[in-house]
C-alpha cells in the first residue's frame, strides 16, 4: 500500500477529480490530514460554484481570508456590514463577483451600497428582507454598476419610492437575470401588489439583454392586468413587440385570472416557464392551457399549485424535456402527459395516498428519464420503488419527504430515511448495479438564486 507521500505525487488534476465527489464537510476533513492535502483541497476548481455566508466579519482571522483567496471564491452572502467591515471585505476579497445581502432588521441609507464601487469585478447583486429609507443606489454607484451588473435579485425589499427604484433598475442596461419579488414602499402599507404595467414595460423596453425574468405577483390587482402586461409595444414600430427575447419566465405567487389568455403571446422565445400559484379561487378559468399552446419551444415547465392537471395536460409542448409538477397527480394524469412528452429526461413530482402506484407506472411511460425526483407526502416509499430499476437511462434518483414529516418522526426517534426505506434503497442499488445515485436529503439553499418565495426546504 502506498504511503501518503507517494499518493501526493499523483498529478494535481487526478486529486481534484477525486475530491470533486466529496461533500464540503468531507473535503474539510481530508484537508486536516497534511499540508499537501490542504493545498490540494483548496484548489480553486473545487470551489468554483461554492457560496459562502459571512457574518460579523471582524471575528475572522488572516488565515481564514487567505483560504478564501486561495480558493478564489467569488460569491458571498452577508447579513449587514458597517463601514469598517466593508473596507475589510474590499481589502481581502476585492475580486468578488456576486454579493447578496440577507435578513437584516436595520433600516439603511443611500450611502450603504456606495462601497460596491470597490469591487471592480462585481456582476451580481441581491437583497433579501431589507429596508431602505433613502435611494438604494446613489448616482456614483449606478454609474459603476450600469454596464457591469448582469444579475439582480430583489425579494421582500422596502424602498421609499418603488417607481424611482424601477427607474434605477431599468438603467442597469447589461442585466440578463432579474428577480423582483414583494417590492414595497417604506412609508406605504405592508401589502404588496404586482408591478403596474408601466413599470414592467419600462423594464422590458430598457433591458434588451434580459433573458431571465422572475416576477412576484403577490397581492390582488385592482382589475384584470392588461393583455400587453408582458408585451410592451416597440416605440419605433407600433404593433411589434419591443422587449427582450426572454428564455426564462417565472411568475411567483400568481393569483389565477389576473393575466389574460394572451398574456404570453409575445414570449414564443421562452425555453423555461415556472408558475407558482398562490391559491385557487373557484369559478376562475385557468389560462395555462392557452399560454402553453403558443410556447412550442419550451424545454422546461414547472407548475406549483393551481388547477387540476387535466385542465392543461393536452397542451404541454412536445419539446418539454424537464417537467416539475407540485400538484395532486394521479395515474390517469401520468397516462395523459406521457404521449405529449416522449423525450422527457427529467421528472419532478409529488406522491400522496391518492396518487396510486406511480413508481410502477413511471418506467413504462417515461423510458428516457435521466433524473427522477419524488417528494412523498404523508407516507413513505413502498416496495413498488423497486420498479424504478427498469429506467435504463436513470442517473439520479431523489427520494424526499415533506419537512413536517421529518420533524415529527425525528421527535419520535424515527429519522428520515427510516430503516425500511434504507433497506429498499440498498436493494434498489443492488438490482441496478449502482448505476445511479440515490439522494434522500434536501439540498442546501442557494442564496444567489433561491429566495424565501421559491425555496422548498424550510
Please state the average pLDDT score.
86
Taking all Cα atoms into account, the compactness measure Rg is 24 Å
Query: What is the CA–CA distance across the termini?
Result: 46 Å
Strand % is: 15-25%
What is the percent of helical residues? 25-40%
Instruction: Give the strand tally.
Output: 16
Low-confidence stretches: none
Number of helices: 14
**Which of globular, elongated, flat, extended, rod-shaped describes the shape?**
globular
Order of helices and strands: HHHHEHEHEEEHEHEHEEEHEEHEHEEHHE
Q: Report on the biggest sheet.
A: 16 strands, parallel
The SS-based structural class is: alpha/beta
What features would you highlight for this structure?
458 residues; alpha/beta; 26% helix; 20% strand; globular
Fold and architecture overview:
The chain has 458 residues and is α/β, with parallel strands linked by helices. It has helices at 4-8, 12-19, 24-31, 35-41, 62-70, 83-92, 139-145, 162-170, 197-206, 288-293, 331-337, 358-365, 403-411, 419-432, and strands at 52-54, 75-78, 98-102, 107-108, 124-132, 151-159, 177-185, 212-216, 248-254, 272-277, 300-304, 322-326, 346-351, 371-376, 396-401, 437-439. It has a 16-stranded parallel β-sheet that branches. The longest helix is centred in the last third of the chain and has 14 residues, at 419-432.
